[in-house]
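=== RUN LOG ===
request id: a7f3
mode: sequence -> structure
chains: 1
length: 196
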Amino acid sequence: MNGPALTIDLDLIGHNMRVLKAAAAKRGVEIIAVTKGTHGDPVIARSLVDNGARMLGESRLSNIRRLRRGGVIAPVMMLRIPSISEAANVVQHCSVSLNSEISVLRCLAAETRKLNRIHDVVVMLEMGDRREGVSLTEASMLYDGIMGLDGLRLAGIGANFMCASGVLPTIEKLHDLSNEAIRVEQEYGIHLDIVS
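=== RESULT ===
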């Protein structure tokens, strides 16, 4: 008896990537193509990259290693907060990671020095979803920590909505996120690449 089969149409995946990229570009938004639903399949990832994805997003190191073994060289964002024990692999295989703990950031910075590279960091803010992140009042301590660590660059801020507890991204909450991005850029004299 034959088992179930999954047919993947790379032409349609490429078409969808181009359409989404064009629609997002009209609003000044850049797409990160998430590959975790494909278990980091390198063939699908290459189709996404070939059709306009500048960066891939993944939540599992095993999938990221699969991408790399498959020859995918596009930048990858770690879509969850890494643990201390994962710091070396995250710096080796990912360009960007989401973070909210200074202890993990210190480990990431130590690994960047070993590999002589810069690792981009997105600070995750807790804005009601209760999945991950620091409060807006605690965030400055984390920003200061990143600024004081060689090898790390504060690339952005992010928040989860409708993930763990179904908190909606209200206009007020999105306004708070936008204001925090403006405040960080002004206070630290930097440009944030990512506000998500």
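=== NOTES ===
The mean pLDDT is 91.
The beta strands are 32-34, 55-58, 76-78, 96-99, 119-125, 152-159, 194-195.
=== END ===
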